[in-house]
Amino acid sequence: xxxxxxxxxxxxxxxxxxxxxxxxxxxxxxxxxxxxxxxxxxxxxxxxxxxxxxxxxxxxxxxxxxxxxxxxxxxxxxxxxxxxxxxxxxxxxxxxxxxxxxxxxxxxxxxxxxxxxxxxxxxxxxxxxxxxxxxxxxxxxxxxxxxxxxxxxxxxxxxxxxxxxxxxxxxxxxxxxxxxxxxxxxxxxxxxxxxxxxxxxxxxxxxxxxxxxxxxxxxxxxxxxxxxxxxxxxxxxxxxxxxxxxxxxxxxxxxxxxxxxxxxxxxxxxxxxxxxxxxxxxxxxxxxxxxxxxxxxxxxxxxxxxxxxxxxxxxxxxxxxxxxxxxxxxxxxxxxxxxxxxxxxxxxxxxxxxxxxxxxxxxxxxxxxxxxxxxxxxxxxxxxxxxxxxxxxxxxxxxxxxxxxxxxxxxxxxxxxxxxxxxxxxxxxxxxxxxxxxxxxxxxxx
Length: 446
Description:
By secondary structure, the protein is mainly alpha-helical. The protein has 23 helices and six strands. It folds into four domains: 20-120; 124-165, no CATH class; 181-313, Rossmann fold (3-Layer(aba) Sandwich); 324-443, Rossmann fold, CATH 3.40.50. The chain has helices at residues 25-42, 51-60, 76-81, 87-92, 105-120, 124-129, 132-141, 143-150, 158-165, 181-187, 205-211, 213-225, 240-244, 248-267, 277-290, 295-303, 307-318, 337-340, 347-352, 380-386, 388-399, 410-423, 436-443, and strands at 199-203, 229-233, 271-274, 330-334, 360-363, 402-407. The protein has a three-stranded parallel beta sheet with strand order 2-1-3, sandwiched between helices. Helix 7 (132-141) crosses helix 8 (143-150) and helix 12 packs across helix 23. The longest helix has 20 residues, at 248-267. The termini are far apart.
């Protein structure tokens, strides 16, 4: 008889995307029904995302009130609502491996999307939206025009974008920088402020490279201040947008190419430090599950640290360089879902507590953004609803005196700000800083 819950740490199986059975629709349906029936009997995940309310409503509204009278063709909305945040697997589900029920809901949703992608391909505009490297290069080269066109409230372009590409007219879209982070790093090399044998390659990531180079500049300054030799590279997108669409082959191709780019640096003793937790998660965990026999992928996974994780390691092992000063206000920090899924603790909060005299409000709940999912016309309002508890906590902290709102996921931070606006609350300006590393740099006087 199966036990209620598992005492073992969650274990993930490699994704058998090269096995023909992985794409067998009848076998997928059998597994969906097995897993959905377990979820129906448990319901611990009812408040995590919209997949589970959709599933439970589907079953409760069926003729029998059980899964046996739900048609398989009606599973689509449940699959579509999963953002692959991994929180059900990491924080809620008592039946993940090594439990005998062997339940991995996010990777099952990934399998369903992979089958659909193999059958029909990725819809044209969905694919264009997630070509982040191409979009970033064009956006940076035409930043003035691109930012005007994508600006929230543009009555000319945003309704057109909604009609043509399915991007909700009210969804915040990140601006493009006039220069990439890699260009800035090449133009403004930094000297180490102290001696250390630490050396890292900052993986710029699409977002920090093209949209928010201030995050990468802050990281470079903090690392150099602490004696770290820093190189800044962006070999390409980590593939998270394509993973969300079920295009596993495309992700595997990206993984192999990027791992090959980082291999010489790893062999020279560099740590690889992504600036966004979604990308850290891909390098550490998802790529090794997609390509479990690839030695370069294994080496990269072992050499990767999230930026907040890496700064906290410096602090724990020898202490940070002197010079940190209090900043002019309290901080609300949102712990991103893809940081939580790395099972490394609240590193963003740990990092911010290194700032002297810091009063910190920590929010550990999904913002509702979900990457490209959250800006789509069909999902934006759902994402705002999911993130409403986070917005309320941020408002409460702001009323109590918090001046800054940051998140390891800058897109989540902007989504929370939008959620606050939807509440209709009068709150002070939350500033331009998006990522915790920017506040740590500010505490050093940068």
